[in-house]
Fold:
Amino acid sequence: MSFVVYVDLLIACLAAEFWRDYLILWAGGEIANREARPGGLFLGAILGSLYYLGFLLLTKGDFSLSPAILATLSLIMPALMVLLAFNKIDLKAVLPMVYLLALVAGGIGFWLQSMNVARIWVLLGPHIAVLLIAEIGWGLLHERFWESFGQIALVVEIGGHKQVFRALIDSGNELVEPVSGKRVVIVEKEVLKSLVPEDIMRSMEQMTPILVDSESTENWGRRLVLIPFKSVGKDNGVLVGLRPDSVYLKHKGKQVKLPGVIIGLENNALSQKGEYQALIHPALLMVKTGGEQREMA
Structure:
């Protein structure tokens, strides 16, 4: 049995397959918090495209593959792509995410094809599905968008609870706690109200003593610190500071624990449009990524 191959359509399909595989590998690595080898995503996507080409030519000709062989290839090929794109030790972390994304993308593509929609949507549908899953499930696109404008995801942990918000990388924030010498990250107090009890927050706002009537309030008293500062139009100011359990930042796909910072509470909004809720000095981004890393809640 002979069949006609339209070269332009074949090239379009291969290009779409390449970018779909590239997106799946990228998103899988980002979700698993693993960094790809240099050029690894490209090589993995090339392998996926060659597999797709071979599959297309075989299934359109006289030769057919049994369902068992197809299922086996569908399991082996993503693993080989991940091995090309990432280090061997990352296989266990990245591969499940790649399987999930590939399954969804393939299902969307098959569904669109069965609906007899325009060919362009059959090609683009899986890409859109992968991007939507990456954004809705893990916020990857949102994170990359903000990072490109000098902003970064920040996590504050207090008493076993975490709060995630956006911080602006600001070289003008030179504030340091004078006793410990720790850098101060300026944070809007509103975003920390889910971490700080209402009565404690009220005492900090009014700068009144915290009445110690339990072990928990005593611990809060130990967390508080007053930070003197100078600013335009205010020679002698005092900022209420808070010692968190941990502060993490997520930058370029890595989540890193900062060595030791003080949270300075700001009463007013830092951004009129609500684009960020904290100010962080760029020196804190120089922390080596070989330190302790934890998954963001």
